[in-house]
Write a structure and sequence with these properties.
The protein is α+β, with helices and mostly antiparallel strands. Helices cover 61% and strands 15% of the residues. Among the domains are: 81 residues, Alpha-Beta Plaits, CATH 3.30.70; 60 residues. The N terminus is likely disordered.
């Protein structure tokens, strides 16, 4: 019983000591907190770090907002465009206008690629000219042709961007050249006749593809460097029909059918006129031959003489 009381007393004393120690530590910490102040060096370092990080964050936000990486500018690729056009001009005299048009185009560095002319008098004459003109001079030449040759009746223009096609052909051409070089190196290391024949066959096929790509590249370069202009010159009284004014639907079909009928009639009459002189000349000969044939048929047959009977021996 005495030991139990001593144990309770000892437990109570230890609890009191622990409570006192905790209270003292809390008061000590609460009293020491106001006394501690930030170190000036640490505060300056933190301020400098925040100043450095803020512009970096601002540049990052600007870069993300723009959608591109700062300091990288997209390369500007020259556009490859094919220009084509057609023009109709009414001139007082077609033949001098043709010569003047050729001179204008030649002065600009172009040339004549095709010509069709119909010289049926100065008033009804017409000519169709196809010119190749440098792209840089295309607009200037077009303006001069429409203003100096006569009255411009119509003008149609077309522009086709072939930049992607040109880039694709160039890329395929480089790949074909590299592949051909690799095959030639492989041919040097071939050991057997079979390997040599196989590699040579493949080289021939790749060379054909390479020549085709080179031809495409050359044609595209020509088309983009020289614009094509088709010039039609007509006389003062030549009728020029505008395709936009032609009626559509039933009236258009009726007009086309009537024109076809008129064209067929003209062709038939032309053929009859060409054959008529031959018929007139040959008709008397045909009549003479028919009369001779009928006369021979009307003649009676010649009488046959009786043959003497042969007596038996």
């Amino acid at each position: 019983m005495t030991r139990f009381r001593y144990g309770l007393a000892l437990t109570a004393a230890c609890s009191a000591v622990l409570l006192t120690a905790c209270g003292g530590g809390a008061s000590l910490n609460s009293g020491a907190a106001p006394a501690s102040a930030p170190h000036p060096v640490a505060e300056s370092a933190a301020r400098d770090e925040s100043q450095v990080k803020e512009p970096q964050a601002q540049r990052t936000r600007q870069s993300q907002a723009g959608g591109v990486v700062s300091g990288v500018e997209p390369a500007q690729q020259a556009r490859q465009v094919i220009y084509t056009g057609s023009m109709t001009v009414r001139a007082d005299k077609v033949t001098p206008a043709v010569q003047q048009a050729k001179q204008i185009v030649t002065e600009a560095g172009g040339y004549l690629s095709q010509e069709e002319s119909n010289s049926s008098g100065d008033t009804e004459a017409s000519a169709l000219l196809e010119f190749k003109i440098p792209t840089a001079k295309y607009a200037e030449v077009q303006k001069r042709l429409g203003g100096e040759l006569g009255k411009q009746l119509s003008l149609n223009q077309n522009a086709q961007d072939v930049t992607l096609k040109v880039a694709d052909v160039e890329s395929r051409l480089k790949s074909a050249q590299q592949s051909l070089e690799s095959l030639r190196e492989l041919l040097k290391r071939a050991d057997t006749i079979g390997q040599v024949l196989d590699v040579e066959r493949e080289i021939s096929s790749r060379e054909a593809d390479l020549e085709s790509l080179q031809a495409q590249q050359k044609e595209l370069a020509t088309q983009t460097a020289m614009a094509t202009l088709t010039l039609r010159l007509v006389g003062p009284v030549t009728v020029v029909e505008d395709p936009a004014d032609e009626p559509a639907g039933f009236l258009g079909g009726l007009k086309a059918g009537w024109q076809a009928l008129v064209s067929f009639t003209k062709t038939a009459l032309t053929l009859i006129g060409a054959l008529l002189p031959w018929v007139v000349v040959s008709l008397p000969l045909i009549a003479l031959v028919v009369w001779l044939v009928r006369r021979d048929r009307r003649r009676p047959p010649a009488p046959t003489q009786p043959t003497p009977d042969t007596e038996p021996a």
